[in-house]
Write a structure and sequence with these properties.
By secondary structure, the protein is of the alpha/beta class. Helices cover 30% and strands 27% of the residues.
Length: 138
Amino acid sequence: MTQIDFYTNVEDKVGTACRIVAKAVGVKRRVLVLCADADAAGQVDKLLWTTPATGFVPHCAPHDPLAAVTAVIIDHEGREPPHDQVLVNLTPGRPAYFARFERLIEIVTRDDADREQARERFRFYRDRGYELRTHDMA
């Protein structure tokens, strides 16, 4: 069953996501970063070129020819996931295919609308018996 981690009270959603992605790649995990739109995917792409500060995290889009061998995939179209290890959800909704992943990361800012959407996802996961962990980043 998917392990779900909520990182709450986050100031910088994209920055936090990129740090989590870099950490996962550091322990040889493949990551799918699901973004709400092309602009958000572009922000993640740009930041991963400098995360960590002394390097970068290899990444590409799901349609890239190297997607099958790249550690991090950044998607905003909801394509079929190329693996099932770690999913970082940066969308306001619940990914349709989250249950196939070993781990789901939800990042929640202090914004009221973002928090309410995260509460709805939390209740959905909890009511279905998923293991939930929260990490207060304040």
